[in-house]
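Appendix B, record 7
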Amino acid sequence: MIFGGIEGERIQLNEDTLWAGAPYNPNNPEALAALPEVRKLIFAGKYKDAEVLIQQQMMSKPIRQMSYQTVGDLRLSFPKVQTVSDYRRELDLDEAIARVTYKVGTTTFTREMFSSAVDGVIVLRLSADKKGQVSFQTAIQSPQQATAANEKGETLVLSGTNGSEQGISGKLKFQARVRVLVNGGSVGSACEASQSLSDPYWLPGRTGVNSVRSLPVNSGNCIAVANANSAIILISVATSYRNYHDVSGDEVEKSKTAVERAAQKSFAALRHDHVADYQKFFRRVSLELGTIEAIGMPTDERIQRFATTNDPQLAALYFQFGRYLLISSSRPGTQPANLQGIWNDLMSPPWGSKYTININTEMNYWLAEPTNLSELTDPLVKMVEDISTTGAKTAEVQWGARGWVTHHNTDLWRATGPIDAARYGMWPSGGAWLTMHLWEHYEYTQDTVFLNRIYPVLKGASQFFLDTLVEEPKHKWLVTNPSMSPENTHPFGSSITAGPTMDSQIIRDLFANTIRAAEILGIDQDFRAVLAKNRSRLEPNQIGKGGQLQEWLEDWDLEAPEKHHRHVSHLYGAFPSWQINVFDTPDLVNAVKTTLNGRGDEATGWAIAWRLNLWARLRDAERAYKILALLIRPERTYPNMFDAHPPFQIDGNFGGANGIAEMLMQNHMVGNTVEVELLPALPKEFPTGNIKGLRARGGFEIDVEWKKGELTRATVRSLNGNSIRLRSGQVLRELKTRKGQTIVWDGKGL
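Structure tokens (predicted):
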């Protein structure tokens, strides 16, 4: 994070494996013995009693998981100035480069910064348009248990150990290295006292449990540059993390090697390689929605005006900002994007900045496949593979079941048990939902090697539910018990229940995807039959007395205490799933609309984004745009365009970006053929535009152009040679394609 001061600059640092604690086993051996009694209490309607028993005997130990933590700050102090003009701070989304520029007198100063995935370093270049004008001091601050040292007057080395939490001692080692290279002038460790080097490291207004520990600014923790023409700062951070059960890596070697290799390259080469690497992802998709004069205004002012002044280019910017964030926080070999992406400045951030998998982690990756960032799901896939292993132990110890389970959260150490409190954590469907992303990766890529790799994960998730679904007494349907509809309280003073609608929807998809995967791979015929039989006995979607889609097994919605609850868990079937859709289930679509109208449009950031995607999926363009305007406003979007949950959470950005894509193109499977609908929810505020490079299931890349609200041209590139159905309004065309073929369609004839 770059804060952009004049006399002082703060560069806040993260490394995505720097979390609290160490490998640990949270499974509770008392849970299995309590399970039969809990189920009995729930079916008897004694929900509070069941919750008490779950809290006493079935929760993880410790009851909370580990937090994602900050490394600290690199601080820079510049000479004091009287007046500054032409100040500008910007983020270039096309190059993923941040800049700060301003004038002091007749001299223009520039700070240019990027994080290079190619070289594994953060690069900061300080320059001026006149020689000998670059002078500054830099020191490193950290709330971690760490020490700083100065090597040869040009390198700062921060070495430390991660924080402990919930009784789990920190055992990760980390090292950050800061190398300063100068052109002209001098560099050394003779620093003067400066407030800018030792300011508090947290953001104003942020909350969290944090030690107010900082490192002394002295010759061992400071580098001074005087009268240089320019300077380059290289920053690397590494930890001893190897995987969720091994912390024996060499953080010193990793950190040192990255900086030394980068120091051998020129700034131009570092910049070129970074931009080329980034643009191979970013430039796959372009979006043009038209512009107005507001494009020349600062972004924070445009956000303030968006709800009342049509600014289509800001919507396009918001869409591309979401893609930029995913490219920047989820690459092959990294950890998945967590609740704050990678951008966290606290030791104990809100909700631990973990992986909350009852909506938030999934929302982070909704845009990956359709906006042509398929490779960026790799960290998520690997995390699901990890938790299919740790979750197998949880399934055995706490549920007495085969397969694997994950509840509503996980962390760096891949903990899978129920956490926080019974009313939030006793939800066994988190892992099952995550498998949807694995299956969708196959649907979009048609990669059977990948499908063969992830089939055991699908099968294991299915086996867990085959073993744990129970027959409810009234209809004899198979339901989960215990569970909840995340994180909503029903009329009986608890969230704990049996058979919430969302569970059945998720399991219905899980079983169907596992069956289809086994069919494609030509395996497990008997297992397929068992899944199909059990799938047919799942609780169906039900319409309640108020015309709403029921959230629970019983018709409790109208009596529920939180009428405008942020979660709309039971609408999973309409989005992201396709079980409920305008083509096949009109009555259920109307029930979804009734539910959404009852819940209201206003919510937290990510919850508004979910509503945006739902109304787009329901083909209500103007309602979708109205909700987009609720998202892009100061209450829900900060001046730097981060999502204001509040306080800050990245999922609203990802969900909002995907919602814009949903307004412009949707696709789903009809049998073995993908159906692609063009401009399904195009609002009047986007009358003319184009989007290029979207992806569809079956292996298709699609460009869409429109004028005055009407499709003018669709270009379809077939990557695998499958059949496709194109829909524009009431016009439907089915085409057989050849691999590599390009088809152009005007929405009418061919």
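Remarks on this record: The mean pLDDT is 96. The chain is about 30% helix and 20% strand.
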